[in-house]
Amino acid sequence: MLKFISLLTIVLLAGPAAVAFGGRTTLGGDWRTASREPVGIAPDPADTPEPVIQVYGARAFNWRGVFAVHTWISVKRRDAAAFTTYEVIGWRLRQGLDVLATRQGPPDRQWFGNPPEIYVDLRGDRVEALIDKLEAAIAAYPYKAQYRTWPGPNSNTFTAHIARAVPELGLDLPPTAIGKDYLGLGTFAARSPSGTGFQVSLFGLLGVTIGIEEGIEFNLLGLAVGVDPLDLTLRLPGWGRLGPS
Fold first, then answer.
1. 3-class secondary structure for the chain?
2. pLDDT band with cut points at 50, 70 and 90 for residue 114
3. pLDDT > 70: what percent of the chain?
4. Taking the CA of residue 109 as centre, how many other CA atoms within 13 Å lie in the half-sphere pointing to its CB?
């Protein structure tokens, strides 16, 4: 039993340790001076009249980035002059606001010094109707007055919740999106965020997800480990996806 616990500990913590010592996230620094500049991977609305939905994620600020990413959703309607971004930000509660923030402007801004990557990029005529559906789900998000960094509800709980409501996104959140498995206090089963499978979860602390996009992923204390056979990819705590895709 002791050997099993030791092996499990190594599996769960090896990824975060590699991230911490491998320079994959920014440690230390002052959030007030950390970069929030766009990185140039989003389309220019002036050159992109078609509607667009994008989902982004970037390493969380400081030590949290060793374990987790922060995610957000951005949309641009047909002929709109700018993107609208929706995200959950925990410190808004201390300002007497709800946690759901909405802003206009570049969707691909760094998250306090950490560059984002795209998880979803949908464009074309069918996307306009999906934006309607997506914004209705955002308006109905049930945790606007709640936030917990771990195990949720947090920014990744928000993104996963919206993805389940709009399975057309096909969103495969990485294992580093801690909080994505938080289903609420009275819900223990749901479709997977990608809409291609299902999951069971005990308050985001213990569970399993099985889906065409996610593969098989186990969650222990918010740290997820699994394998995606179709993409030949390992899903590792802290590290994220490891494989050819």
1. CHHHHHHHHHHHHHHHHHHHHHCCCCCCCCCCCCCCCECCCCCCHHHCCCCEEEEEEEECCHHHHHCCEEEEEEEECCCCCCCEEEEECHHHHHHCCCCEEEEECCCCECECCECCEEEEEEECCCHHHHHHHHHHHHHCCCCCCCCCCCCCCCHHHHHHHHHHHCHHHCCCCCCCCCCCCCCCCCCCEEECCCCCEEEEEECCCEEEEEECCCEEEEEECCEEEEEECCCCEEEECCCEEECCC
2. very high
3. 95
4. 19
